[in-house]
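hiii so my PI (J.) wants the whole complex modelled not just the main chain, which honestly fair. so below is everything: two entries, each one labled with what it is. i double checked the lines twice but i was tired so who knows lol
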Amino acid sequence: MSNGERAGLLLSAGMNSGRRRVVVTGMGIVGPLGLGVENVWSRLIAGESGIGTISQFDASDLPAQVAGEVPNGPREEGKLTLSEWVPTKDQRKMDRFIHMGLVAATEAVEDSGWKPQTEEEKCRTGVMIGSGIGGLQTIYDASITVHEGRAKRLSPFFIPSALINLVSGHVSIKYGFQGPNHSVVTACATGVHAIGDAARLIMFGDADVMVAGGAEATVCPLGIAGFCSARALSTGFNATPQQASRPWDKDRDGFVMGEGSGIVVLEEYEHAKARGAKIYGEVIGYGMSGDAYHITAPSEGHYGAYRAMRSALQSAGLTTADINYVNAHGTSTMADDLELEAVERLFGDDAKKLAMSSTKSATGHLLGAAGAVEAIFSILAIRDNVAPPTLNLDSPSRESVIDRVAHTAQQRPINIALSNSFGFGGTNASLIVRGV
Amino acid sequence: MSEIADKVKKIVVEHLGVEESKVTPEASFIDDLGADSLDTVELVMAFEEAFNVEIPEDAAEKITTVKDAIDYIEKQKAA
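here's the output for the full assembly
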């Protein structure tokens, strides 16, 4: 039996058998590489980096002074002018992570062309946008107000500005989407969990359309200092920011924080076809696991990652032979090699044909938004048959038969891609997408 | 217009993001100027801060128009 026949047989037994199919009909990104999916993607595959010296506050007294910040500027240059997306009078009622989520969700919804008209259509459209941390800067500012003895002066918008599920809330209010309104909080796995869970809501019939993804904005004193204390951030490349995020490289010394949001519009396949929607790809597999090991470190061999990927393959009814590209979690920390080891073990001989890259080398780590941004990159990798590069991979700390796409993007056939995200608390999620 | 009235108007324009011409004395924060209940709480706080007055909750509930706010603050300041 050929691999194709085997995959076909397995496919009929997998996630798609008898279930509603879920496709991606809209996408939005705002992040360190800028605004707009096509702009960000073309910069990514050109090998550009979105990392720089922190500009939102003075970080000179902190060990880590670099981050991936959203560039401000005109939209036609692929940059963000926030007032074009969120009315100025409303901006102060929301933390920056909500701004980010609203920008990317607006892009995605407009890209999808989905405009529910009837009550029924509105009730069949839901939102599931998460965040790893939520309104950290808002909480910091409010704490100072209370500390100064001005508790009675605390803004009535403090709580709704900081709450993680308020991105979903604001998006639903903006568009009148009255279906399931939900939110995911699984640290750096949030984006993948949100898309995977939202896809299942559609498969199970709870909704026909879901706006899903993640948003994060913690390039602030508390965010940077907190991850510095956990010894998680890169500190050795403050003078050369674009070299700081270097997954798998022997000189890597921690992740680089990024901010922004990635949002997709997920839609039941027949629903999308019936309205003639543009279809980017299909969510065909989703797997999850827990390490039950340590609050921040993955276990030896990263068996949690292994099981999440295996479970995603099973839900898709695929084997490792079917996967052409893996978008790695690859944060530029010691854990990179453990993920690599887990992929090698799972893929066996199929590892030799595999391309795997970490786009965090260009964007930094967008925490709760990372998985959603990287799911979009995986879909575009399939659309264009291009594996985006791993920047700064000059000298791997561990050799591998897997092509990690060092420095330059590669044109190669990519039909099916898997994207990994792992979070503090020992939570792991893998998503599998294909073209339609 | 008094100095207090000018300042009240400015705060309303700033917080509710409305055009200055709409902020007439009779304008209701909620019905005419698009405020919600949280906006009005924040507005009252802004008045307290700007004029260095205390506006207790039962008094705040009665401040529903621009004129209500001006009258209350003028009375407090005169006392």
